[in-house]
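Reopening: Archaemetzincin-2 still failing for me.
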Amino acid sequence: MNVVQHSEEKLRSALVSKLPAVAKLYSDYTEGERRLLEEGLHPGKRGSLFQPITLHSDSDWIVAHPEEPQDFEAFYRDPHRKTPDAGHSTIYIQTIGSFGDVGLQTDRYVEWLRDYCQAFFCGLSVELLPAVSVSETGCSFRVNSSSHNLQILTGDLLRFLGKRKPKDAFCIVGITMIDLYPKDSWNFVFGQASLSDGMGVFSFARYDDHFYSRNYAGRVKKKLQLRQGDYSVFQGYYTPPITSTLLLRSCKTITHETGHMFGIKHCQWMNCVMQGSNHLEESDRRPLDLCPICLHKLQVAGGFKIADRYKALLRWMEDDESQLSEAEGAAAHHSAVHFHKPTEAFNESRLWLRSCLDRLEIS
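Support: Ran it again with your exact input. Result attached.
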């Protein structure tokens, strides 16, 4: 295992900038906010809130995909970066295909994702568009020759999202439980985006713990003959059960990919949800939230108070998950099903947020 180390001077320059006009943005933070952000100048130090990136194999993202690190100055001066404004301040989420058996739990899962994004991208509105079936997208599809599961074509989905994108959208994010592929020569892709158009589509299919096993329930019969345009194959197609781990992985993915819409590139400074990942093990090692450098980028784009954002995320994790409307409560009672937001996998993040708020509140 190798550790990615940067000097304090390099990290300070990446966070603040040496250009006076850009550095002034940093001086606008409160003393508590600066104290929190500057903990990132010593990642891995005993008691620090932030940790260095660790590389475990040559297949990890930084090794396999060398990129120029993006410091705050490069982000801020990027002429192609898009920033929310009064006329484009809503993140829209479009679900594609089934997210499980129709009912309260499926609806709640999507709402939990929406509410998490609302807290993460504090200050912006996050809305759910009406769900669409795979057939409504008109996309091409196939059976993967190796994993024997159904896949849908990302390019077709992006074209569909372009037609669905509301005029007041900052961006539109398509999510699906069906595996994706970008072209015939590729095995699969977790997602694909058009940053210039503010669109992306991402799959949670491979976040099922059993996806890579021979007993994966989404494998289709080898003799199945597909006909393009006949979407009946997706009726009743397997979707992974909604678990705490699946919810955690989904929250990481949707915020990571939406973060790219703000012009935030893959993080190479320290442990951060904006790190690239080549495989599930590496994705699981990423924390749920942003490092100080990427947090500075998002804050300048969104204009929120750091403490307000952390409190919103903490509320999402700690709110009484069992609260249902009267109609939902009656339905749950009759079906003998009680829906809690499964946040057990978020315990480490919950403690981390509390520590962050403690640092901010020290006088």
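The domain at 90-257 is CATH 3.40.390.10 (Collagenase (Catalytic Domain)). If you still see a failure, please send the error message rather than a screenshot.
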